[in-house]
Amino acid sequence: MISLTDSQKIGMGLTGFGVFFLFFGMILFFDKALLAIGNILFVAGLAFVIGLERTFRFFFQKHKMKATSFFLGGVFVVLIGWPIVGVVLEFYGFFLLFRGFFPVVVGFIRRIPVLGSILNLPFISAVKHQQL
């Protein structure tokens, strides 16, 4: 079992609430207040989990500047009141930022009993061989 510090536990909670508020804001027809709260909680939770310095290093690497600008630009657009455009920008930036982690997540999900059998179906497992 992985041991977490108190600040990492707080960060996990903030990130979880951020994802919840983002999801709930989209369910409620892109409610800009819920999306703004979700964005702030998600970014703050990420900073608590991996640390402030590592968060800045992650977001501001030279090869990730395009992804960072889309993600943080989407957060800004949501905060100024255009939730649909902001969420689209955020999703694109999120995909660009975290696309290196997706194979790890899929590999982890393949070990979960029910989800793993679904991901191993022939028409779904063929997708993993395509390059992003």
From TrEMBL:
Q: Name one GO biological process term.
A: retrograde transport, endosome to Golgi
The record's subcellular locations are:
Golgi apparatus membrane
Q: What are the entry keywords?
A: Golgi apparatus, Membrane, Transmembrane, Transmembrane helix
Pfam family of the protein (one): Got1
Q: Does the keyword Transmembrane apply?
A: yes
According to the record, the segments passing through the membrane are 12-30, 36-56, 68-85
- Where is this protein primarily located? Golgi
Membrane topology annotation: Multi-pass membrane protein
On the tree of life, the source organism's domain of life is Eukaryota
Please provide, in alphabetical order, the Gene Ontology terms of the cellular component aspect for this entry: cytosol; endoplasmic reticulum; Golgi membrane
- Give yes or no: UniProt keyword Membrane: yes
Q: Which family does it belong to?
A: Belongs to the GOT1 family.
Biological role? May be involved in fusion of ER-derived transport vesicles with the Golgi complex.
Under which name does UniProt file this protein? Answer: Golgi transport 1Ba
Q: Which organism is it from?
A: Sander lucioperca (Pike-perch)
**Higher taxonomy:** Eukaryota, Metazoa, Chordata, Craniata, Vertebrata
- State the gene name recorded for this protein: golt1ba
